[in-house]
Design goal:
The chain folds into three domains: 130 residues, NusB-like (N-utilizing Substance Protein B Homolog, Chain A), CATH 1.10.940; 56 residues, Sun protein, domain 3 (Alpha-Beta Plaits, 2-Layer Sandwich), CATH 3.30.70; 218 residues, Rossmann fold (3-Layer(aba) Sandwich), CATH 3.40.50.150. The model has no long low-confidence stretch (mean pLDDT 94). Helix content is 47%, strand content 14%. The termini are far apart. By secondary structure, the chain is α/β, with parallel strands linked by helices. Helix 1 runs parallel beside helix 3, helix 5 packs parallel to helix 7 and helix 6 packs antiparallel against helix 7. The protein has 19 helices and twelve strands. Strands 5, 6, 7, 8, 9, 10, 11 and 12 form an eight-stranded mixed β-sheet that branches.
């Protein structure tokens, strides 16, 4: 690689390299952006880095439409380095008014040169200059297909837009997709085990973090202004924990279902990184049982269990035992020995697109069907561990019925001894179930309606 060119900022270089790894290594942008290498960046450069990476991934479909329009070539026929440089430049031209157009164009051209594509640099320049000239025109006016038009307008893959239009209509699909392209609100919960809530509140006031109670989840809070940096003392020391509202709702719902005044056994399958596990532990610790409840948290990967153990230690969560196992196979526990089993199953992740926009470009429609078969296996194995009179909670962070309602419908046909208790349980914890319930089984949250991640969850009671 040649020496750095004069006009290249470290934020744009960092963004280019993160986007390159996302494209070639199936890495997740959020993990890469949290890498220590970026700790040396100034606050301004760190903010620009994050804006560029996540903005490009959110609007990649629209950016690629423009690239193909101006190059008259398909994206996969162009060098990846040129594509990334053009995406970065176009995103700045379209969405970042505070950045001068000449800077967006020049640095994108120099990025192409920096990463060994000097011969392609004139193409980058031509595409960005051409796009800059037509920014005021309706580039979609000539689109023939409503699905294709909405796909480009909202920057979502055609197959997904087609699905959503069939389920929710054009306007509903547009609202869902555009909500995914917004910066997510941070939600959190206080952890009185590590610090009295009033002292954490004082810490947030010092940081000028303004927040409000969640309208979706009891005892959850949403940041309205300011930010909760991972380096903030309240976060590092576990005085509070940043966790999506829907994720908190599922964990609180599960924990509040078990009988009070007596110890319970909980099995949390596919539990890492432990957000729901540690919240369930905190809820059960408030029980008046003379003996502590116990939680067995399982996952397929040792490194993910290490993350869970580290989180448990930071939050002061107790009575959690971690076990590495493959939940597709027979489990090493006595059948029907747990009062509560939570399966937050591996899924497409299409409900997390605000935070993980790269997922919409990776997941294909046939992957949903493949995942549904896995989810069925896991749910059957999870059900075998539920004691009579116990509860089975199934959840996925997906928008698609094949991973949610259809799974539960299939399961209940095989296991009629289970009854859907979602409505009753939501009501018992003080939540109006009507806006959340689906037309068949379980309940859903949606990003465009609730401001949280899109989740499906269902509470099943096993008859005695």
């Amino acid at each position: 690689m040649s020496a750095k060119l004069p006009l290249l900022s470290q934020a744009r270089v960092g963004a280019f390299e993160v986007l390159q790894r996302v494209a070639t290594q199936n890495s997740y942008a959020g993990n890469l952006l949290a890498a220590p290498r970026f700790d040396k960046y100034s606050t301004e450069d760190r903010a620009l880095l994050q804006e560029l990476v996540l903005g490009v991934l959110r609007w990649q479909g629209k950016l690629d439409f423009l690239i193909e329009r101006h190059t008259r070539r398909e994206i996969d026929k162009l060098d990846l380095e040129l594509v990334i440089a053009m995406r970065l430049g176009l995103y700045q031209l379209l969405y970042l008014d505070r950045i001068p157009a000449f800077a967006a164009v020049n640095e994108s051209v120099n990025l192409a040169k920096e990463y060994g594509k000097e011969k392609g640099a004139p193409l980058v320049n031509a595409v960005l200059r051409g796009a800059q000239r037509e920014l005021q025109f309706n580039i979609l006016a000539g689109s023939k297909s409503p699905v294709q038009k909405l796909s480009v307008e909202t920057s979502h893959p055609i197959w997904l837009v087609k699905r959503w239009m069939a389920r929710f209509g054009e306007d509903g699909a547009r609202q869902m997709a555009l909500a995914n392209n917004k910066v997510p609100h941070a939600a959190f919960r206080f952890n009185a085990k590590q610090k009295p809530v009033e002292e954490t509140v004082a810490e947030l006031e010092m940081l000028n973090v303004k927040y409000r109670p969640s309208t979706l989840t009891p005892e959850a809070f949403v940041v309205e202004s300011g930010s909760l940096s991972p380096k903030a003392r309240s976060v590092k020391n576990g005085w509070l924990y940043v966790q999506d509202e829907s994720s908190q709702l599922i964990a609180r719902l599960a924990a509040k279902m078990v009988a009070d005044n007596q110890p319970v056994k909980v099995l949390d399958i596919c539990s890492a990184p432990g957000s729901k596990t540690t919240l369930i532990a905190a809820e059960l610790a408030q029980s008046h049982s003379p003996q502590p409840s116990t939680i067995v948290a399982t996952d397929l990967h040792f490194h993910r269990l290490r993350t869970l153990n580290e989180l448990s230690k930071r939050l002061g969560a107790e009575n959690i035992t971690t076990v590495r196992l493959d939940a597709e196979k027979d489990m090493p526990f006595e059948p029907e020995s747990f009062d509560l089993v939570l399966l937050d199953a591996p899924c497409s992740g299409l409900g997390t697109l605000q935070r993980n926009p790269e997922i919409k470009w990776r997941v294909k429609e046939d992957k949903i069907i493949e995942l549904a078969e896995l989810q069925k296996k896991l749910l059957v194995n999870a059900a075998a561990q539920v004691a009579p009179g116990g509860l089975l909670v199934y959840s996925v962070c997906s928008t698609e019925p094949e991973e949610g309602e259809d799974i539960v419908a299939w399961f209940r046909r095989q296991h009629p001894e289970y009854r859907d208790m979602t409505r009753e349980r939501l009501t018992e914890v003080g939540i109006d179930p009507t806006p959340l319930l689906t037309a068949s089984f379980g309940a859903r949250t949606f990003t465009h309606k609730h401001g949280s991640e899109s989740f499906f969850f269902c509470v099943l009671w096993k008859r005695r």
